[in-house]
Amino acid sequence: MDKPLFSIVVGVFNIEKYLQRCLDSIDKQVKNFEVIIIDDGSTDKSGDICDKWAMNKEYVRVYHQQNQGISKVRNNGVQYSKGEYILFIDPDDWVEDSYTKTLEQLVEKNGGSEQVDIIGLNFKIVTDSYRGLKDGNSDNSYPESAVSGERALEWLLDSQVGTYACQYAIKKNLYLKNNIQFPDMILYEDAATIYRLMYFAKKVICTNKPLYNYFQRQNSFSHTPTVPRTTEYFKLFEQMDAFFTTQNRQDLFERSKGYKLPRLFSAYLNVIRLDISAKEKQKYNKKITKLIRENAILWPTNISTLVKEILFFTHLFKPISYIHDWIEKKNDKTKYYNFNR
Prior knowledge:
By secondary structure, this protein is of the alpha/beta class.
């Protein structure tokens, strides 16, 4: 086929229960794209499902590899792709029928692929019992507009837009030209990459249409309190600080405090809920407290962050979080935590 506009990358690992739904949603798209499936060493039937689905589809390529983790999968997807833009779809998620058509129309409307570096899109959060809109990771929604990469980066650092890889169609050349790869992390590898891509982007366009369905499975690794949920934040923030320092952008370094602070509060709550020794909790929370103090903002624009900051520095944050968890338990609600990205 001619060079496609989009390369859709699907990383697969032991997800046989949900995989077919994802693939079927891709099948409904307007075919100005290719599909790259990377089976990351699945031990269930996921690999067979991919091979069967790809049969007689010239626009689909399936790669099987030993398990190397999500970052390597994403980097391989970038390497294998032939399209102008790269899209990531997680195998337990699915997209709306108008997904690629809408993105293509946005590119054409805003000067074509020579002009547009990144397309941001909205998504719906879906659980077994809930389906609703999610605007990035804040109460704000994407402005329907075209902006500079730096303006989009400011939105990201202000937590007005999210950092999930699935939220963006990103020009392949932006990765290659700036030597950007997903770092080797267990979590937040997309958060550690998107801000760098935005920094080098010239033009970013956004749509508020929810084209992507983000399925949050109960008790999945990425939504359950674990030690990496905290330690990977440390890595993310260290990399972010180093990047803005290297670029000699003290203004963005300072602005990133608004991004880090709510996630530090989430990390603090995560440690409280961990089933580890009191000594280990004290070690992690000592570091988190130090980082919160270093990144404190006098008047954060996000009301939720402001409230958490007040509670934290008046020593009410921990007891209120215990009361919240007790109420959730009393109400027999599912033990489910949705952390900021």
